[in-house]
Design goal:
By secondary structure, the protein is mostly helical. The protein has 19 helices and no strands.
């Protein structure tokens, strides 16, 4: 049961986070880093809030390996600090917000082993935060067989007992089909359902977190609808596949399953998009969806919906209640997006600046603010 969090529970932590907002990178910093090599990016970040993690990473490694390790550790430290700023009901909300990283790490470990990636490669994509972000995750990443990974996760009840049970239940089907996408969907749906249940009893203090989650899951569900429709139109599918046992769509969105299925079965793309626009009831989604109706592509839509999510969340710094959970949401999404941008810059050596710039999401402070 989530405790209700009075405004006073957020005052201290929100003050700390608003002070740290000034350390976040803006468009000017990203413009400076465009076209720089990894060593130059490391040098630049050593003069920012990333200094401690950069120095620690360079003591044992170099190049991209050092940079990616430093970015992961900095994100983990920043969000770990965030958790310590709150107590009681407000900390429980922070734990719900950060539970996404447990799911991320679980899927990263499973995907890495299923694809035969090296432990180093897998761990480079694990966020060192939560139940799988430390020694347990390192041990699991070192296993040679996926079955052994499953054994460890289930026996250690990681990342939590309920998720471990869901994994144990889903594993026999995977052994028959080796369908990694279905396994990932089952685990994601399980996480979404549990998060939705927790948020339903969390009270008004969780309203902004409910909207953040809804924006993420609505985007995933809308893309499922449109991908299936596109596959039918291109004759890649003869008919709609039956919904998985876990369900075709993720729980926790604001667009209900009936509305999604209704859009899926419309006669034309335009009619399907109209249904989705009406059900989403978000003005910032209207134009991206209408571009799809006019012949746009799904990869562009996916990016536009993610930009919308980031801008909405980071905008809570300005328009949100300073004594509410709005501030932790804004800081978490801003920091996560910042690390994403820096990883993109690190991998962008040789990519034209205009192309790379278009991939960055900069929610404030710049002439090319997206």
């Amino acid at each position: 049961m989530i405790l209700l969090a009075p405004a006073g529970d957020f005052a201290y932590g929100n003050t700390r986070l608003r002070a740290r907002k000034g350390e976040l990178l803006g468009a000017g910093a990203y413009e400076t880093l465009l076209g720089r090599d990894v060593d130059a990016i490391l040098e630049f970040l050593a003069g920012t809030a990333y200094r401690a993690e950069i120095e620690a990473a360079l003591a044992v490694s170099d190049g991209k390996r050092a940079l990616h390790a430093a970015l992961g550790r900095h994100l983990a430290r920043s969000l770990g600090d965030l958790r310590t700023f709150y107590e009681g009901g407000s900390r429980e909300l922070v734990d719900l917000l950060l539970s996404r990283f447990d799911l991320h790490n679980l899927l990263t470990l499973l995907r890495g082993r299923a694809r035969g990636q090296t432990p180093e490669h897998v761990l480079a994509n694990v966020v060192p935060l939560g139940a799988l972000g430390g020694a347990a995750g390192q041990e699991i990443a070192s296993q040679r067989e996926l079955a052994r990974v499953i054994d460890l996760l289930v026996s250690w009840r990681l990342p939590d007992p309920a998720a471990a049970r869901a994994l144990a239940d889903a594993w026999p089907e995977y052994e028959l089909t080796e369908d990694l996408a279905t396994l990932e969907h089952v685990l994601t749906e399980h996480h979404a359902r549990r998060l939705d249940e927790a948020l339903r009893v969390a009270g008004p203090s969780a309203d902004s977190l409910r909207e953040l989650v809804a924006r993420e899951y609505d985007a995933i569900n809308v893309l499922v609808v449109l991908r299936l429709r596109f596959a039918l139109q291109l004759d890649e599918l003869a008919d709609l596949p039956p919904a998985l046992g876990a369900g075709r769509f993720l729980a926790g969105g604001s667009i209900g399953e009936d509305a999604l299925e209704n859009a899926l079965h419309q006669a034309t793309r335009g009619e399907a998009v109209a249904k989705l626009v009406a059900a989403a009831r978000r003005e910032d989604w209207r134009m991206p969806l209408q571009r799809i109706a006019a012949g746009g592509d799904l990869s562009t839509l996916q990016r536009e919906l993610e930009v919308s999510r980031v801008r909405w969340a980071v905008g809570l710094f300005l328009r949100g209640d300073t004594l509410s959970f709005d501030v932790p949401i804004a800081f978490t999404v801003a920091k996560e997006n910042e690390v994403r941008n820096l990883r993109l810059l690190a991998e962008g050596a040789g990519v034209p600046a205009a192309v790379l710039r278009a991939e960055l999401i900069v929610p404030w402070g710049g002439r090319w603010d997206t």
